[in-house]
Amino acid sequence: MNRLLVAALSLSLLVAPCAARRMSTVDPDVPPGAQLVGQWTPTSAQMGGKDFPVAGFNGATLAMTERTYAFGNDRGSYTITYTGTPARMDIHGEQGPNAGKTIPALYLLSGNALTVSYQLGPGVRPKDFDSPAGSQILVVHYQRTR
Known about the structure:
single chain, alpha+beta, Lipocalin
């Protein structure tokens, strides 16, 4: 009886990491920046506790390489500062309306869905994916299109 229990426990310890890896929505063997590469279309957004119409983005999509981004006429680079959940990045505006600014942000990648919480004001990095009333936190939900 004890041998059967030990064998079952041993098997579960071997299978659990494999199952968890299959269920993961990001690949731990791929560098974080590489996971963000692609074209992302905003599907919804909130700012200051209110819905922000994606029409306000004028059809812009977010294009990301492993180190750079472009969104409309806003271009720059980003640095991933933490890869836990949620992950953190610093966005460095180089051209356009955010030139010279560093925007602290959080992001969560789940398959082809990306959520980013940007601190557009003078405050600290967002702690979650909520945009409290009166804040300058912009939360954008994107869908990968390429």
